[in-house]
User: What shape does this take?
Amino acid sequence: MATILLAEDDESLRKFLAQALIRAGHDVTDFGDGSEAWECLKGAGFDLLLTDIVMPGMDGIELAKRAAELNATLKIMFITGFAAVALHPSSQAPKQAKVLSKPFHLREIVAEVDRMIAA
Assistant: This one.
């Protein structure tokens, strides 16, 4: 089991992801805004940050950069329709971050989260 911070502004997708991860045995805290997710992340320990890139408040790349500075062992996965943005060197996204492109199947993301946590 992992403690996961999920940041995704699409409410229906966020709720589906959270439910799938909870059913897989993980503890999930979710936010629809990057700034709110950052405030939570600063005060609690998480194993994984699962974040969209384009969000209100603070985008996912900035959230991931700050999260990596706060906790170098935090695993980071971007879920995005803009994979090229996350992978581009100028984005300054944490190099160890995994990128999963939308659309994806819920089984796929749960399996990828499990792989990341096990590594």
Notes: The mean pLDDT is 88. Strands lie at 3-7, 27-31, 48-51, 75-80, 98-101.
